[in-house]
User: Fold this.
Amino acid sequence: MAQNNINSLDDLRLFAKDFCAQLKPGTVVALVGPLGAGKTTLVQMIALELGITARVTSPTFALVKEYEVPNKARKISRMYHIDLYRLDRIDDDLGFEEYFADIDSVVFVEWAEKAKHILPASAVWLEILVKNNSKNGVRSRFFGNKKNGS
Assistant:
């Protein structure tokens, strides 16, 4: 399990750049962490790395936002940003599987722990653990690994 200590927004930007360089079409990224930890900020920084110029905001009320990736950067056509914060229960019939099945896109799911039962086994899990707040921003650690069906 890889671990990165994030002590500033610049560190987060570097992590986003490195992570984005590894993104492939069809990747589903499961984001977990407490409220305000930086999940949306990370997605915003990755969107910038993909060349997305549209304003990326949390889809808390819309549930899903779609962004076109210019010039199919890294052969990725679209980025979906899903936020499950407001949902108490995730039903299979909400249609999220359609986004996960889009092999030309990348999908970021905030509060992914609520949807373990519908996420693909190949999802990459990033957990943001907030240690403390500092003058330079949130100090976080990110773990990325493949979920083993647990």
Remarks:
- The two ends are 16 Å apart (CA to CA).
- Residues 7 and 139 are 4 Å apart (CA to CA).
- The chain is about 20% helix and 30% strand.
- Residues 2-140 form a domain with the Rossmann fold fold (CATH 3.40.50.300).
